[in-house]
Amino acid sequence: MSTRILAPTLVRPAGSRSRRSSRRQQHGAIIVTAALTLLLLLGFMGIALDFGRLFIVRTELQTALDSCALAAARELNKQPDAISRAVSAGAAAGNLNGVNLQSTNWSGQGQITAADVSFRDASYLSTTSATAAVYSQCTHTQSNISIWLLKALGAFSGDSTSFPATGNVGAYAVATRASAQSACPIPVALQAKTPGATKPDYGYTAGDWLTLLAKSNGGSTFGWANLDGSNSASETADELNGHCGSKLGDTLGTPGVQASIVEIWNYRFGIYKNSSGPSVGRPDYTGYIYNTSTWSAGRSAYNGSSGGTPNFLAQRLAFTPCGNNPAQCGQQGGGFSSVATSAQLKTYGADRRIVTVPIVNTSRKVVDFACMLMLEPMKIPVDDVQLEYLGNASATGSPCTTSGLAGGSAGPLVPVLVR
Fold it and tell me: Where is the Putative Flp pilus-assembly TadG-like N-terminal domain (predicted)?
């Protein structure tokens, strides 16, 4: 009898087919869960990146509006043209800033315009009056800022309302003028006209012509004075050329006067030697000279009248030079060889003849600051020159405006942000 060996028969368990189907279902569920998780992460990433970009754009816009408000506030000196100057200065300064990731044209979405610059009076009420305006306000909304990932999320979800493709940011800034803690005056000093005369004008009247003596020991109430307290004549030249800084309580020096001061002083009138010119030694907007020969009234050349001669403000608007050559500007010697033309005054002109002057007591300590107008250039050999007293530098309508840190109790008014 033969023995048959039977091969084992593999029997498929009844539940194996259902388990494989279950695993396939689990794999599908994992894919769906991963997709939803990625979508959620994309949303968080979109929020971080897109709102981060909006924050950056708003910071850039705020910087631009701060510049706008400060530049506009600088022009609020109560003069009839203050509003127009402030609007122009504010828009120009603000638009120099890059916005929307430093775009120079703000990505073509519109920059600051005259409509964005407004003004308020001392009671913080809206005004368009040049004599009442105290605060400048710049407001702007930057529109259509592209939103990167949230836009994609909106396209994926079909909800463009909750996930817009663009966003808007807005900002505003308010500035005014306040007395500076320090000033950058020219190196001369003015004492009270009469003993005991007090602020704001110390015995002087706006429009008075005062003589700056060539020698500091001439017994005048007005003479040369080093801001650093030294007696160095070379320091005087450096300070006249912009190396300056003075605050209340400083003691001023009594320097001698040397010829190098003449060249630097005359830059402001557009009169130069061979080694310089208006692109280096910046002149004022006008070099016109005022003395009793050209202005018989002998006072108030800044904004007054005298016969048919235009005053200083009018000559500025016309960019009038002192003459066609140094001789016509009173320079018969000293090596002066050229004079800034009207076109050069327009190109390179700046606020150079309206200057801040320290007011000192009998101990030569700074107690206040005056605003003055340089009337005429200096000559070689060094001679006396005249300046016009325009008032206290901290007066609301003073044309003296400087840069500096606000917070002082006296001195020229500087623009400062208040909001």
Answer: 28-74
